[in-house]
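Example for tutorial group B:
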């Protein structure tokens, strides 16, 4: 019977090893997907999907909301376009991804879920759901503008730093006597 217990033990070890390899493979795949989800191409794809969602529901959204949502995705496209020159700053990636995959779609879906008869009826805050939607879109637009400005300032700062480096490198050094 010892041989039977040994075979069970070997099978258990093999199964544990296989589970470990599967887990390692899954972790590796998850890391690749996570990295890929933050790439400029993935962010552009997410914006395209969001634009399609906005277009598909344009008849149910106020015209100002459709325009506002598209302005937000346009601003974020400008942020992502800076990746053609240099890698996106991690904060820009987080901001763009958050707006495109969570904040803006959640805002729109929440509005679309409101009963049509309540859209223009003031709530306890004194604002109607329609006004609240536009207010939230304005906040998201402000965030997108700030992200674009920060990205552009980072580009300008990088250019100034490069200019200082080149002046020091190719002109007389401050250390020369």
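The residue assignment follows.
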């Amino acid at each position: 019977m010892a041989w039977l217990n040994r075979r069970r033990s070997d099978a258990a070890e093999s199964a544990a090893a296989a589970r470990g390899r599967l887990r390692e493979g899954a972790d590796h795949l998850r890391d690749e997907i996570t990295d890929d989800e933050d790439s400029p191409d993935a962010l552009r794809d997410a914006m395209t999907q969001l634009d399609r969602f906005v277009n598909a529901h344009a008849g149910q959204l106020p015209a100002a909301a459709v325009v506002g949502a598209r302005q937000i995705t346009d601003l974020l496209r400008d942020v992502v376009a800076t990746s053609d020159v240099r890698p996106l700053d991690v904060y820009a990636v987080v901001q763009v991804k958050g707006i495109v995959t969570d904040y803006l779609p959640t805002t729109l879906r929440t509005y679309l879920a409101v009963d049509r008869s309540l859209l223009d009826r003031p709530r306890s805050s004194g604002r109607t759901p329609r006004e609240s939607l536009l207010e939230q879109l304005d906040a998201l637009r402000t965030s997108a503008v700030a992200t674009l400005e920060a990205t552009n300032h980072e580009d300008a700062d990088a250019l100034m730093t490069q200019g200082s480096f080149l002046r020091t490198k190719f002109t007389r050094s401050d250390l020369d006597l």
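Residues 72 and 140 are 7 Å apart (CA to CA). Compare this with the pattern of hydrophobic and polar residues in the output above.
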